[in-house]
Amino acid sequence: MKNNLTPQKLAKMIDQTLLKAYVSDEDFQAFCKESAAYDFKMVAINSAPVKKCREFLKDSDVHVGAAISFPLGQTTIETKVFETETAIREGADEIDYVVNLVELKNRNLDYIRREMESIVKICRKAGVLSKVIFENCYLTQEEKEILCKIALEVKPDFIKTSTGFGTGGATAEDVRLMKSLVGDEIKVKAAGGIRDLDTALTMIEAGAERIGTSAGVKIVEELRERLAAEN
Questions:
Q1: Is residue 15 within 8 Å of 40, Cβ to Cβ?
Q2: In whole angstroms, how far apart are CA 217 and each of 14, 105, 165, 222, 223?
Q3: What are the catalytic residues (predicted)?
């Protein structure tokens, strides 16, 4: 396997997601138990269940990631700041927030910069990882480049392709573009539509260092089976 990728190493690149609107406490508990068993890097959830998932994962090193202003990004900076601070206080180790694409389309770049600076500053102070979700399916090439340029100034930990709730998800082309623009200054997370091992490997080859998916178990098991077949 390329890069000597093991199931354990791959699991530590996966943000296992459960972002549906109709999840019970029992569902969250089972999800967290499974995520701990596979030792994923993070569980990606909406901000409301952060506290309960932190409790479910207290005996593991799996991070709890809160999705902020998800999935549209259409809340004010002040609202995003409040949601971010609350999620961190309740146990979030990582923050994935959605950019306000309306203000980007309006070319209100000062707003986009202030939004990013506000959230990244809170995360940095708290020792929490920050990820900026672009939602590339709605963006032009120029808009993607603009967001990468602002990110290089602000320095979030990651920039991320998609929410998985838009009209399109991650593409290798977008991952390569984002990585080419930010280099080693910022990491890239691919998310949206990654449901099998080959797609995940394609994103990693393109430069992604995290994979957001609800199919983490399937992907890791596919790798395990492939390695077993090769030996």
A1: yes
A2: 10, 37, 20, 9, 10
A3: 96, 160, 189
> Is it the case that residue 3 has pLDDT exceeding 70?
no
- Spatial contact of 150 and 115, defined as CB atoms under 8 Å apart: no
Per the annotation, the verdict on 157 as an active-site residue is: no
Q: How far apart are CA 204 and CA 14, in angstroms?
A: 11
| Rounded CA Rg of the chain | 17
Q: pTM of the entire structure? A: 0.97
Residue % of the chain over a pLDDT of 70: 99
Structure tokens at 176: 């390569």
Sign of CA dihedral 25, 31, 36, 40: negative
Based on the residue annotation, tell me whether 59 is a catalytic residue of this protein: no
pLDDT at 1 over 80: no
Q: Of 41, 131, 144, 160, which residue is the catalytic one? A: 160
Q: Which of 15, 96, 157, 174 is catalytic?
A: 96
User: Is there a catalytic annotation at residue 61?
Assistant: no
